[in-house]
Structures are given as structure tokens and as C-alpha cells.
Specification:
Layout: E1 6-11, H1 16-26, E2 32-39, E3 47-48, E4 51-55, E5 67-70, H2 74-87, E6 90-93, H3 100-109, E7 114-117, H4 123-138, E8 143-150, H5 160-171, E9 176-182, E10 188-196, E11 199-207, H6 211-224, E12 230-232
Helix pairs in contact: 1-6, 2-3, 4-5
Length: 239
């Protein structure tokens, strides 16, 4: 049985995540086909290694695709969401800093198309989030601390991933405290600690290579294509 590759639109192609997505997808031609790559400015070359490039202002003219993967800026989010809704195709987005109105637009679009937004597309973090929620539900009354460490150039604190982990614990009743460290070139480490009388549980995820986030986004995109409309989490698409 011949498997048809998932056709991808990479939105935010000139960024670090966009470049990783293009590179990793190209290594899996049986699973992925890059339908188009979109960047903010006009591309220096229209076609690079068989991939057509478009400026953000030309987004409406991109060829047919099955899933858009968006790692851009908040100002670029609305057009790609609108395009996916118009064409009836899936959207995977890791764009951070979205306004409340943009989150509401995403939820509205999810009534028509499948969407997946996450602050972190690591499959390991998706599993960690589920473990944190289960631990918080089982350990009522224990202290809960989320400690995150990143490189010195990361400005936001706590990180989006730390907040997501804290939300998971909080949804199960935990009162969450945060701590942030900025040191060296740490890619990303997240510790969720539950402390009770005479004992402590630590749940930790350490990222040592940024490619894990692009691999996770590709994993999600492949499994999101063709799904029913709705808002999906990374953990919903692990299998």
C-alpha cells in the first residue's frame, strides 16, 4: 500500500524552528512533502532545493497543503489561521505571545478545522505534563514547585513550558510556585517537585538538542492531518 506524504506549509521558514522543520522534513520524503515555505520578507530565491518560497504578503497564493506548521510572530498568526480555516486544513502552531483575541480566534477556528497549539512540542514534555497532572491529583496538600533553567539569552520567565506544567498541576488542585534560572547555554530543563512530610517526588525533563521541538511538531502535524475539527494537545497525538 502506497503512503501519500503529508503536504506541509512551513510558516516562519526563516526562523530557527522553520529552518529545523525544513531540514528534518526533507530527511523523511516518504512521510512529508514541503508544499511551500513562507517567510516575512521577499525570498532571495524563489525555489530552494525544490521548495517554493513565498513572502508573508503572498500567503494567499501558496499551493495546496494538508497542514500548516506555524512558528512565526503574533502579527503573522492571524493570516495563517485564516488561510487554514478558508481552505479547511489543519494548523499546528508554536507561536507564542498571542493575545487573548487570537486565542479566541483559534478556538473558533477549531469548530471548523483541527488545530494544535503548544508552547513546547517536545514529546517528552507532553508525557511529563500528563504525569504532573496525575501526581498533583494524587498528592493533595503537598507543596508543588516548578523550577525551569534556560540559556542566558532567554528573556521570559517563567518559561511558557513552566507555565503549562504549572497549569497542569493547578488543574488538579495544586498551589504552584515557580523559580527560574538563566545560565550558560542550557537548552531547557524543567523540574516539577512535589514535597510532603518526609518525602519528595521530582519529575524532570532535560532538552539537550533543539531539534526535539521540530521533530515533535512534525509528529503532531502528521497525526493531525485529516482529523475531525477540534483543539488538540500534543499528548492527544502521541500514538
Amino acid at each position: 500500500m502506497e503512503i501519500t506524504p503529508t503536504r506541509l506549509l512551513i510558516h516562519g521558514a526563516s526562523g530557527r524552528m522553520g529552518q529545523a522543520l525544513l531540514r528534518l522534513a526533507a530527511e523523511q520524503p516518504q512521510q512529508f512533502q514541503i508544499a511551500a515555505a513562507v517567510m516575512r520578507k521577499s525570498p532571495a530565491q524563489r525555489v530552494v532545493e525544490g521548495v517554493p518560497y513565498f513572502a508573508a504578503s503572498e500567503l494567499g497564493g501558496v499551493p495546496a497543503f494538508d497542514v500548516a506548521i506555524d512558528f512565526s510572530l503574533p502579527e503573522g498568526f492571524d493570516p495563517v489561521l485564516a488561510l487554514c480555516a478558508q481552505r479547511g486544513v489543519a494548523l499546528v502552531s508554536g507561536t507564542t505571545g498571542l493575545a487573548e483575541s487570537q486565542r479566541e480566534a483559534l478556538a473558533q477556528a477549531a469548530t471548523r478545522i483541527p488545530v494544535a497549539w503548544a508552547s513546547n512540542f517536545s514529546l517528552g514534555v507532553a508525557v511529563l505534563t500528563e504525569l504532573v497532572e496525575r501526581a498533583a491529583a494524587a498528592l493533595g496538600g503537598w507543596d508543588c514547585d516548578v523550577v525551569e533553567s534556560h540559556h542566558v539569552h532567554k528573556k521570559d520567565a517563567p518559561s511558557g513550558t513552566a507555565l503549562t506544567l504549572g497549569e497542569a498541576a493547578g488543574s488538579a488542585g495544586a498551589a504552584v510556585h515557580y523559580a527560574s534560572l538563566r545560565a550558560g547555554d542550557i537548552v531547557g530543563e524543567h523540574l516539577v517537585q512535589f514535597t510532603g512530610p518526609g518525602e519528595r517526588i521530582e519529575l524532570i525533563h532535560r532538552a539537550t538538542n533543539r531539534d526535539i521541538f521540530a521533530r515533535g511538531a512534525l509528529h503532531v502535524a502528521h497525526r493531525l492531518a485529516g482529523r475531525a475539527p477540534g483543539q488538540y494537545r500534543v499528548r492527544d497525538l502521541l500514538d
